[in-house]
Each structure stands twice: as structure tokens, then as C-alpha cells.
Amino acid sequence: MLEVVRPGDRLYPAVRDVYTATGRPAAVARPSSTAEVVEALRLARDTGGPLSVRSGGHGISSVATNVDGTVIDLGRLNTVERTGGDLVRVGPGARWGDVAAALHPWGLAISSGDSGDVGVGGLATTGGIGLMGRAHGLTIDHLVAAELVTADGTTRRVDAEHDPELFWAVRGAGANIGIVTSFDFRADRVPVVGHATLQYRIDDVTRFLRAWGETVESAPREISAFLYLMGGGFALATIVYAGDDPERAGRAFGPFTAVAPVLGRQAQLVPYAGVVAATHAPHRGQQGATTHTGFAVHLDEPVATGLAELATSGTVEMLQIRSTGGAINDVSADATAYAHRHQNFSVTAVSSTVFDQAWERVRPMMEGLYLSFETSFSTELLEAAFPPATLSRLRDIKRQVDPDDVFNQNFPVTAAVRS
Ligand SMILES: Cc1cc2nc3c(=O)[nH]c(=O)nc-3n(C[C@H](O)[C@H](O)[C@H](O)COP(=O)(O)OP(=O)(O)OC[C@H]3O[C@@H](n4cnc5c(N)ncnc54)[C@H](O)[C@@H]3O)c2cc1C
Predict the structure, then answer these.
(1) What average pLDDT is seen over the chain?
(2) In a domain, 16, yes or no
(3) C-alpha–C-alpha distance, residues 94 and 117, integer Å
(4) Which residues cross the membrane (predicted)?
């Protein structure tokens, strides 16, 4: 029977909030099968009010909870099974750290994000910019099929042959078209990876960012590198070499030690699961923040200067610069609803205060936007997330599959039509 948790129930405090926000939903439905997801959707539609879909509850824009509406919490759909060879079937409620741990004994891994607590459902319906991205592509590039419940309660298996338009839309704008209840991925054979962490002291942020950008872009594809810049003087880097040869890994890490004075360093061969372990810390809205984001093609002089000004302005607490490029850019821009296939960096600024004006000076230098790293929403941002041809195709699909705009919480493609 479908479990529905309401205010006053013993379990309510544990299911009302997400990682980035507190919530006060009228009902949290916790389906344990696809049939129960259909039932939960019917309940939500009959009740009316806001509808939130939640997988891991780590969505940065906090739309996986609400006030006085219904949450469909897919946390119990969290199995990871091997279906043959390199194919695995994963539930949306699994966390990426648990997926990595389950895949490791089979010698397999799927590039996900940098946090093992992030849920499969939110990340695998928007992109998945991960620590093996330059070697193996986005998470969605590994998707071969998905089970999807659409607004009318129909369950469909979508893949390249069945409902190919829906399969295209799931890979970048999944939240707009339905609830994914299961993902079939082709995993990569990755027994272990080289994992390096570096701490830098920075004297000149512009020069540092230029050197970082050039080092990332000239690194072999096995390298993916994420940078976390705190204020102006200090940065942490996580660098993964997607391979098991320690000498090659060491050679590939080498140039990163010359980017700036290194205060601390560590490098080892570990299972990918060791890079993205899940903590399963309870959600209490503990990480609320404002973030703005965009893609950069290169960290050239104007971009590096703009980002350095932002980082040292005192308005932003952290600048995250994740490598994209490599295998991610081998896929054509129209192959998936995620269309950003020529940029080399995803840039995200994080602050506990509003910093819209400071970000406005950087935004014109960015090309496109990854919707999962943005806490604001506007027609302009929607158009940055989905270029014109992508947005138009998504709207056609949306009209057919969700004419009542039931799934309207997360970068709704209907927004510009309404405004
Ligand atoms: C600490 C942290 C680090 C991160 N690092 C990265 C990173 O390195 N790379 C990266 O790509 N992303 C990263 N992200 C962003 C992350 O991918 C997104 O926030 C993602 O949406 C979280 O997935 P979730 O299932 O936990 O989210 P939830 O909060 O459960 O869901 C977010 C939204 O996604 C949609 N959604 C969720 N599940 C489904 C489903 N099954 N079907 C349809 N729609 C669904 C819903 O609209 C929902 O509101 C990070 C986020 C955090 C908090």
C-alpha cells in the first residue's frame, strides 16, 4: 500500500525537508514500486497544489519540497542491479555514492557528480558533470533506456527505438516530462582511478585561473579536474585520472603542481567509490545558499579577470570550476536535451547572500547554463539552459505529453510561453 506521510506523523520531520531548504508539504508519498508512483501521481493531481518530485533531495534549487503541496519521494526506489555485461539498472532514489559502491565489485563505474549524496533521479535527468566526464562523458551519455511515468499516469519504457523524443528529453530536461522510475545505464569498466587533491596558495587569481584553464585543457582526457576557489587566496582541487596505471596518472597530475604554490597534496589509486562516498546525513535544509552558474568555453583573459574580480569581491564565498569538454563534447549538441557540447568549464558561484549584481558582470562572458547549478529562475535563464532549437523541441514534446503542465517546478519549459 502506498505510504503517505502527513504533518503530525512520526516520520514527517524526517521527510519534510531537503538538503538546501526546509519545507511544509501537506503530504509526502513514498512509493515502493512504479505502480505506487502512478498512484502517488493520481493522489497529487486529485489534491491539487504544488507537486514536487524528489529522488535524493540534493537539488540545489530546493524544488523537491514545498509548502502545502504533495511530494513524491522516490527514496525507496533505490536498487542497483546488473542486468547483463556492462548494463546496470538503477532506481532514482539511490545515491551516487551507493551506486559507485555497488558497481565497484563488478569492475564498473559511472561518472556522476562530486558528491556521493546526490540522488540518481535529479542528476540523471539534467546532465551529470562528473569526475570522469572528460574521459567518459556526462552521466546521461550512459543512459540507454528509462522507465517513465507521464502526467496521464502511463508508464513507458523510453529508449532510442521506443518514444525516442521522450528519451531525448529525459536526457537534460527529464523533470519537465514525467517521473523517471528506473534508469538503464551502460557503465564503464573502471577498476580503480587515480585521485589527487591539491591545496593551492594564490597570489594572483587571474593568472592562477588562466594557468588552471590551460592545464586542464591540455591534460589527457583521462583527467577531469574540479576547482574550489575560496575568496582570493586559497583553492582546493580534486583531480581524477580515469585509469589504473599509476605512472601515467602521476605524469598527468604533474602539470597541476606547477599552477601555483602547493600547500598540500595527496595522490592515490582508489576505487571510484572512494572518491564519491555517500554520508546519508539527514536533510534539515542545512545547505541553503544562492548560486549562479554558466559555462565558459575557455578561462581566457577576460573570463579569468571577471571571475577573479567576482572571487575577490567579498560577495561570493566559493567559486566552483568543473571541467567539462573531452568525451562530453564528442556528443552532438542536438543528441540530448542537454545541449552544451562545446564548452570546457562549468562555473558556479556560491554565496549565503544575494549577489545578482556581481554575477551580472560575469554572466555575459558565459555561454549557456546547467540548470542544476542555478537557484534563480527566469525566462532568460531558461533560454540559456536550452538553446532555441532545444527549447522549441522540448515545448513540442511538453505540449503532447504534459498538456496540463503538471511537472512545472524545475525549469519549466512552458515559462516563456506564459510570461
Ligand atoms: C553538494 C552538491 C554537489 C553537487 N555536485 C554536482 C556535480 O558535481 N555535478 C552535477 O552534475 N551536479 C551536481 N550537483 C547538482 C545535482 O546534480 C542536482 O542538484 C540534482 O538535481 C540532485 O539530484 P537529487 O535526486 O538529489 O535531487 P532532488 O532534490 O531529489 O531533485 C531535484 C529535482 O530534480 C527533478 N527530479 C528528481 N528526481 C526525478 C525523477 N526521478 N524524474 C524526474 N525528475 C526528477 C525534480 O524536479 C526535483 O525537484 C550537486 C548538488 C549538490 C547539493
Answers:
(1) 96
(2) yes
(3) 9
(4) none
Q: Which domain CATH number covers 178?
A: 3.30.465.10
Across-strand partners of 159? 145
Cβ contacts of 107 within 8 Å, gap of 6 or more: 189, 190, 191
DSSP classification of residue 283: P
Q: Enumerate the β-bridge partners of residue 241.
A: 194, 223
Nearest to 68 by CA among 109, 117, 27: 27
Range of the domain at 153: 80-189+388-405
Query: CB burial class (10 A; 0-12, 13-18, 19+) of residue 142?
Result: buried
Atom 52 of ligand 1 has which residue's CA nearest to it? 58
CB 330 within 8 A of CB 360: no
The reply to whether 100 and 36 lie within a common domain is no
Which atom of ligand 1 is found nearest the CA of 115? 3
163 and 179 part of one domain: yes
pLDDT attached to residue 288:
87
Cβ of residue 97 lying under 6 Å from some atom of ligand 1:
no
Please report the pLDDT score of residue 416 as a whole number. Answer: 60
Largest Cα–Cα separation, the chain: 60
Q: What CATH number is attached to the domain comprising 17? A: 3.30.43.10
Helices (H), ranges, 235-378: 246-253, 272-275, 301-311, 356-360
Q: What is the pLDDT of residue 394?
A: 98
Same domain, 88 and 185: yes
**One domain, residues 94 and 17:** no
Rounded-to-integer distance, Cα 331 and Cα 339, Å: 9
Q: How far apart are CA 348 and CA 342, in angstroms?
A: 18
**264 in a structural domain:** no
Query: What pLDDT is stored for residue 232 in this prediction?
Result: 77
Nearest-CA neighbor of 272 among 46, 389, 103? 103
Instruction: Give domain status of residue 101, yes or no.
Output: yes
Which whole number is the average pLDDT over 319-325?
Answer: 98
Cα 64 to middle of ligand 1, angstroms? 9
Best of 20, 54, 111, 184 for a ligand 1 pocket test (most atoms within 8 Å of beta carbon): 54
Q: Which helix (H) or strand (E) holds 96?
A: helix 96-103
C-alpha cell at 134: 572528460
What's the first-to-final CA gap in the chain, in angstroms? 41
Quote the number of domains for the chain. 2
Domain boundary (16, 42, 73) is at: 73
- For residue 211, give the 3-state DSSP assignment: helix
- C-alpha to C-alpha distance for 368 and 387, rounded to whole angstroms: 8
